[in-house]
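Hi there,

I know you've been waiting on this one. I reran it after we fixed the sequence typo, so this is the corrected version. Both the input and the resulting structure follow.
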Amino acid sequence: MISDVTSVLMRNFAVNLQDGISRAERGEKPVAQHTAPAKGFTIGLQATLMALKRVFRRFLAPYPSTQN
């Protein structure tokens, strides 16, 4: 679960950083972002959805055949 929370935080950071870099490359001024602090419920919900997707993939996805 900790790795899922870390993934959510890193993904959000990466999106914001990429947006800033692309604005700088286009010659736009950086936008003064008034970002809200990370919401625990939202991060927890995203991490829970990631974990559930992983569980469903593990049990419902077809396994590759190991027979030769």
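Quick highlight: Helices lie at 2-25, 40-60.

Best,
R. S.
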